[in-house]
Amino acid sequence: MPQVRLFGTIGDAAGWSEKTVPGETLGALKAMIAADDPQLSALLSDASTLVILNHALIPASLRGEDRPLDIQDEIAFGSPVGGG
């Protein structure tokens, strides 16, 4: 199962920062993380949320819900960021 790390407000909303979570695709993994928490689901789905797969930042264009994950993957979600 992929190792998941949550940073910032995402970790605060989930109540944890690191754990192993089952999920064969990015969408399935996010669904498992958010379970029945609409706030957490919204944070994970926000286009500005950072998604880091195996230490590489994944651009929004490559974050499809059907993106496959390997059981040895490490995926991190970081708080949405703004710029100016």
TrEMBL record:
It comes from the Bacteria. This is MoaD/ThiS family protein. InterPro entries: Beta-grasp_dom_sf (IPR012675), Mopterin_synth/thiamin_S_b (IPR016155), ThiS/MoaD-like (IPR003749).
